[in-house]
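Data deposition worksheet. Section B asks for the primary sequence of the deposited chain exactly as it was used as input, without tags or linkers unless they were present during the calculation. Section C holds the resulting structure in token form. Section D is free text for depositor observations; keep each observation to a single sentence. Incomplete worksheets are returned to the depositor.
Section A, Depositor: J.P.
Section B:
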Amino acid sequence: MAGKKVLIVYAHQEPKSFNGSLLKIAVEELTKQGCSVTVSDLYAMQFEPRATRNDIVGHLHNPEAFNYGVETWEAYKRGGLSKDLVEEQKKVQEADLLIFQFPLFWFNMPAILKGWMDRVLVQGFAYDLSKAYDGGLLQDKLSLFSFTTGGGQEMYSKGGIGGDIRYILWPMQHGIMHFCGVKVLAPHICYAPENVSEEKRKEMLTAWTQRLKTLWKEEPIDCSPEWYFK
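Section C:
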């Protein structure tokens, strides 16, 4: 939709990968719609995933015992977070839609993307102790987790060895995005692209293109435990 701003946080090492193709399609299709698209390519940026003392510029609130959560909260309030975090927070603040594009690693997002969540979405910016979930500080934004798996769809079913894929989505969609007040669109999952035919991979890419064409008309999911565990 023209005028909308989109931030794609991309976590894959190889531009020619299937994830890279999904990213390229999203940038092209959303730009074609008149959206302003920004990409945080975490590996290309050599984004630092570790939450450390280096994230705070200047003095510590309590130099005797380092507490990352407290120190980043205090630093945010006084404008004392490191430059890379301030830049990412600005991208988030300006975005109407956050898309996270990544391969599933060990039932989770890659460490570099988890580090982005840990370091960027700090208290005071994304949430506060009395302002979380529907009261989170990043309201009026949408999010979408688009990812690939190694196993097939049957593996991630309720009767499959991996269990329902929604169980895996609980900490990502509910524990992070919903906690920060962000509305969540249904995930876009490409199952086992490395283990299917070239024709099937093309179908997956076409399906992503088609979904993006009507993405702004979609309603967010019901952010409740029932959606994940019913």
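Section D:
Residues 198-213 form the longest helix (16 residues).
The chain is about 35% helix and 15% strand.
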